[in-house]
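Risk register update: the risk of archive-format incompatibility is retired. Evidence:
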Amino acid sequence: TVNGKAFANVYEIKMLPKIKSSGSDYAYINEQYLFYYAKGIGLIYLKKTLSRFTQKEIQIRNRQIR
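Archived output:
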């Protein structure tokens, strides 16, 4: 449920970026992205956190049915 609307067939994608410094291995940074996509609609929710603090949050407000 996003913005009071219930969605079915929702996919959750979690992205944990890594960086690589010269001469070292890849390492996770403290960013996390959560994407929620509803089948037939697209992106319905996005949340970016940095060190457990919400940096950005986007929710679907309305949609047009054709």
